[in-house]
Design goal:
By secondary structure, the chain is α/β, with parallel strands linked by helices. The protein has a domain at 81-259 and 266-340 and 407-412. The chain has helices at 2-14, 19-45, 49-89, 91-107, 157-161, 209-223, 247-256, 280-291, 332-354, 394-397, and strands at residues 115-121, 125-131, 143-144, 152-156, 181-187, 190-195, 202-207, 230-234, 270-276, 296-300, 308-312, 317-320, 325-328. Strand 8 (230-234), helix 7 (247-256) and strand 9 (270-276) form a beta-alpha-beta unit. Mean pLDDT is 78; it is low at 171-175, 262-266, 357-383 and 385-417.
Length: 417
Amino acid sequence: MTAGTRLHWHVIALAKPNKSLMTGILVVVVALLLLFLLLRYFVRKHGGWRRCRRRVSRELALTRRAFGEPLRAFRRHRRGVRTLARHLCDPRAGLLVRRLLDAAGAALGDVPGAFPYGLRTGPGGAFVQIAARRLPEPPAPWEADEGPGPQSWYLELDRLEDGVALPDAVPRAGARVRPLPVAVGMADDACVHLDLAAGPRMITVEGDAAARTRLFQALAAQLDRPGSGASVTVTDGVHPHYHGERLETVLRELEDTPPAEPEETVSATTRVVVCAAPTREQTRRLGELAASGTAVCLVDGPAPGHSWALRVDARGRVTAPELGLHADCAPLGRAVAAAVRADRRRSRRAPERHRPAEQAVEPRVQPEQRAPRSPELVEEPVPQVPAPARTMTGADLLSEPATARTRPAQASSTDEQ
């Protein structure tokens, strides 16, 4: 019996847990209890479980958005490049922009000091931004834009396809001024344009060095395209691979040019001077030329005086608060490059289209060698096939209408709005 009892206690001793296992279990339980008490303390401190749950959900959403923003920005950039390239490569789109600015200027002919200076073209319509003390009532087919932002008129582009005609430009007192629109970027899937000839005619590009250079060169390349209506003079220092004339030489040439009479119409192109980092004295002379209407000046970098300043940040956002301009100019460089390549292809195809078709030359038979033909074998004359209709090229589509928008040649001040 004693032996059996000793054996029974020996079996019970073998079933007892190990000391290290018990220590681990106790540590885990104490850690979970402390974690629960700490979590409960923080939850009560932040207003309870419901408010804490909403805050955690918001933080998770912000984290997910932050990690997905680079991909969305890349997709948005590619979409902007495609949209701007499609718009700039189409000659009819550029002609439509100038006609809309002309029509808006004609509608504002009776309003003193009012003129259109910007345009946003979207999938279904166009917004024309207007500088005026008070926005007048728009005539048909324009509509007033009641939304927030700068003063603008709205026009449905589908109405133009239905046969609604835009009013012709009405001559104003003063010299005729052609619109000089350039694309500056994208804003909410709309192409943003700015008329460089509408305001003080002195435009400066400021901000981040790399982004500013890209925007500045894209604007200059647009002005130098065929059919833009500008005669561009690029001075030395604008591009490292292009050595143009010295700015001092260009200024003397423009100052020696006699000003046009107010009754005379200006030439088919607008003189544009593209320069970088002018001195204070050169900036003053550029401002005088711009104020007199002799030239439009595009300056890289800040410049004192009356001008439109386009400020660009490192992410490619261009802003001009006084103009109500907020756009993304990062896709503009690649889109302008695609448009320039399209212009080169179009110019190479243009001579082939206008080349006259060579006519086949039939050998003439001398009268004495011509054999007599019977009436049954005489062939009827073949009717001449009319020549194919001439194909409209990009230069034809970009030709300016007979009537152009008119404004006084003196620079308009945005302070008078």
